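Quick look at the format.
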Amino acid sequence: MVPVAVGRHAVVVARVLLVLALVVVVVGSVVPSEDVPGAGRVSDKVMHLLGYAVLGALAAASLQPRRPVLAGLLLLGFGLALELVQRQLGYRSFEWADLASDALGIALGVLLVLVVDALLRRRA
């Protein structure tokens, strides 16, 4: 849901960035925690929140027409799937608090896109 003033090209860019961000999140979710840059210095809940905020914003910007709820639900399902994968790994674990951080990040990212969209539409 990229603002009309931005154009179709921005949707394509958002989709490419979304795919790249999804890959980064998958890799960061399945490697041992000590191999994740910033692990130990930054709370993993903060990392979840920020990572999923980026995903939420990119997903909301990628879907046309406006479907922010769909974007959020798909990403929450993605986060749940990754938590379930982590549960199967011997060196990672499923945590409801991680999923809650994911949900908050998704909501913040989607909200950011909605606010920017509204502001750009008002100026157009």
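Next, a different chain entirely:
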Amino acid sequence: MSNGGIIGPVNDPIVSVASTTTAQSFTSSGTYTSGPQARFVDYLVVAGGGGGASGGGGAGGYRTSCLQICKATAYPITIGAGGSAGSNTSTSGGNGNPSIFSTITSTGGGGGGGTSIGSVKAGNAGGSGGGATNYDFAPTPCAAGGSGNTPPVSPPQGNPGGNTPNAGVSGGMNSGGGGGSGGSGFPGTCNTGNKPTSNPGPGGGVGGPGTANSISGSPVTYASGGTGYHNSTGNNAGTANTGNGGGGTAVQNLAGPGYAGGSGIVIVKELTKTVASGVWPLQCQYNYKKQGTWTPSAPFDVDYLVVAGGGGGGGEAATFYGGGGGGAGGYRSSFPGGTKLSLATCSSFPITVGGGGAGGGTSGPGVTGTSGSNSIFSSITSTGGGGGGGGAPGISPTASTGGSPGGSGGGSGGGSGGVQPAGTGNTPPVSPPQGNTGGLGSCGTGQAGGGGGGASATGSNASTPGVGGAGGAGSANSISNSPVTYAGGGGGGFYSATGTPGAGGSGGGGAGGASNTEGTAGSVNTGGGGGGASTNANARSGGSGGSGIVIVRAPGSVNLTAAPGTNTVTTLPAPAGGCKVATFTVSGTLTT
């Protein structure tokens, strides 16, 4: 069957119609959810404008084009705030904040230069650059406006700010205008050219022009630069949701601050075209190739690191026992050299980042630390670390509890009449193993707790007199392009005034408590186990386990987004080949 002359596989002539013909405008941060048949959208992403001081603020970055999207998918939207106004003669305006939609980030506008008498100051770089400033008789060469299109994208998101003249002019600041999306800011001048008609004397350059866009149905101009200033009246703050730069003012003689930049905006419009499945408009294809975002529809392989939350260290209800260290959260990774996961494009994957378990308390059965929570990505589940055993009279024949099983097992608590078992690791079993068994507590003099198991080593047994077991070592991983060690076990506590707490295992394991203190918490986003409590005169709690982490590493040609905003996607430099790395420090969603 013919498909209109396109070389390639025949497409089923099923059509795909966008679910709406109305542009959705976001004036504050939120979420855009694509329609059930959405294939591609037009977008406008404008960042917050830079604040003016004496030099005008640069416009927020302006980016508009066509973008491939996934149907029925939630995309977080960030609206950049405008930069703050320069507050006095030496403070430049603040840069605007970026606006973000999917893979598109527009950079905030650069702040306008602010300066003191007899000197000059350049404008700040940004989506468009801020205008420079020269205050009264400055003997120096002209100052440069801030660079635009920083960092560089294609097509450019903005233009440079205006310069100052080569020498100051008595009686005013000769300040450049901020750059706009449609052109550079005009320079400050020593004559009547290139300045607002309201300016009665020589001085400020006009801001660079903005760009009109009809994505919302009627033409609206966005991303104009703020005007630089010489005298004290006539400029304004950037209008909200335009990304305009703030105007400058004469802060000579402390006449007042400049003006803040306008906030940004994001507008998304699902295209109303009817298209055959598998076919994209040539304009979209051209834009994807130019931006490096044209991606294959075939599944792709990713590396992963999934670390669960660490177990809490054991607590002590009495005054003569040491708590066991919490086991590290289960550690599972394909990097380097393991079996990767295959993911589909235009799909969403829920990510669960396990929390660390609470440290054991100071009464009854509650002295045992709580096990950590599981971390999950696709078919990979890492089990939370086991809680460390604790001690209290009457809870067992030995007055202590054993460690709990988990990704790595918790160490058992020290007791007076025998040793309880440590928690087993790699529970449930996976290959390669996700962790190791905890160490045994000691009985008799000192009654110290065993160390929690770690990703690469078992927890150490406690020894007498009063030496807590060290937590098992974690494992180093360079999936994010630099080695970081994860999943160390917690150290055991002790009983005596002169004992020694067990050290936490490398990879975020918390140390056992010093004499008569609570155990140390495991480090956040490492899956380290919490340290066991140490007692001498008072009951103490164990340290809580550290939360887990999930990291996904994909080819550079793949589009990745991570929600919510506390999670990140970065592109690695050479020699990693431009791979993209999504890091989840809290539970969220990975979209491909």
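The chain has three domains: 1-294, 299-550, 551-591.

See the schema section for token definitions.
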